Amino acid sequence: MNISIEGIPELEKALADKTSEMHGQLVEAVEEAARAVRDDARQLVPRDTGALHDGIGYTTDGPTAEIGVLDPTLHYGASVEFGTSKMPARPFMAPAGDLERARFVKRLKDAVR
Questions:
Q1: What element of type H or E holds 80?
Q2: With the CA atoms of 100, 32, 90 and 80 taken in that order, what torsion angle do they form, in degrees rounded to the nearest 10?
Q3: pLDDT per residue as tens digits for the range 32-63
Q4: Which member of 47, 55, 70, 109 lies 3.0 to 4.6 Å from 74 by CB, making a disulfide possible if both were Cys?
Q5: What are phi and psi of 64, to 5 degrees?
Q6: Positive or negative CA dihedral for 86, 92, 94, 95?
Q7: Looking at the domain assignment, is residue 40 inside a domain?
Q8: Position 13 in a domain
Q9: Contacts of residue 89, Cβ cutoff 8 Å, sequence gap at least 6
């Protein structure tokens, strides 16, 4: 008995194309999520001079993102987020992340469809 399967090269190409497309959609979903967390954090952060608000940002590298107070001169952002022995916590990053958590799952599901 001899079995022949045709179309394997075409199937491999189609799968490679789909993988590339899904990667691009994943990167886009991460970018959208990072932007949403940044925007939510900027709405939640206590404002005095506005420097901390303006210092909240994000960077992306493929399917990963760093979101937070990216300006190293704004080191007091951690004190605002977590509090100190003399000042209560006024979190803004953690709640922003929590707001995005459910939306991100939907973003990922939409990206792989």
A1: helix 77-82
A2: 140
A3: 999 999 999 999 999 999 999 999 999 999 88
A4: 55
A5: -125, 155
A6: positive
A7: yes
A8: no
A9: 80, 81, 82, 83
